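Researcher: We plan to redesign the surface later, but first we want a full-length starting point. Tokens attached.
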């Protein structure tokens, strides 16, 4: 009895478990497993092998929710795993993922999210340019016409009457038809020649 009383309380209990590497290996294993939940095919594999019927495994899924805390979430490279981890807390989702059609639906929705998430996010992040002002419609006007050239004013030429003819009306046509040579040949011998020296010579003779 003395030996039993001398043993301190709690001496027969095993010491608490302590990771030899300060939990580094456990951290990496749990990080790898939780990120595998981002793959719907892997979740379908767990459901097909009845992992979701084990209460210990369901408790383990609840334990892994600590990865949603800020000091741990910075190590997550595939954030979809946290979305599926939250869905796995629901029994209906765990049962539905056992069917191939549900797995294909989840995979297709995940693909469309990856395809359009960046464009949808940029619509909310990037500032939108202001709308361009629309020009007011111009009033309906007739098409412009080319200006007409200014009229050129021509000076009025006064009408000058023809000089009266000394010939009789009947001879006017014949006289106009005669050429200058004919006129000289017919009338040249009858025309008197004036000698400018004769009058002067006669005056000298008379004065002498």
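Model: Full-length starting sequence:
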């Amino acid at each position: 009895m003395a030996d039993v009383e001398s043993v301190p309380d709690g001496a027969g209990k095993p010491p608490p478990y302590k990771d030899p590497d300060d939990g580094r290996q456990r951290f990496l294993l749990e990080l790898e497993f939780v990120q595998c939940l981002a793959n719907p095919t892997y979740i379908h594999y767990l459901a097909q092998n009845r992992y979701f019927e084990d209460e210990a495994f369901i408790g383990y899924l609840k334990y892994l929710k600590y990865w949603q805390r800020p000091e741990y979430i910075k190590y997550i490279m595939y954030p979809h795993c946290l979305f599926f981890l939250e869905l796995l807390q629901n029994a209906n989702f765990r049962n539905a993922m056992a069917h191939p059609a549900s797995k294909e639906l989840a995979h297709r929705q995940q693909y469309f999210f990856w395809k359009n998430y960046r464009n949808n996010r940029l619509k909310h992040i990037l500032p939108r340019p202001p709308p361009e002002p629309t020009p007011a419609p111009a009033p309906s006007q007739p098409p412009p016409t080319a200006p007409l050239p200014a009229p050129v004013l021509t000076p009025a030429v006064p009408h000058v009457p023809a000089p009266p003819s000394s010939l009789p009306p009947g001879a006017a046509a014949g006289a106009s038809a005669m050429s200058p040579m004919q006129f000289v040949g017919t009338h040249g011998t009858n025309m008197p020649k004036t000698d400018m020296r004769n009058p002067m010579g006669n005056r000298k003779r008379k004065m002498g």
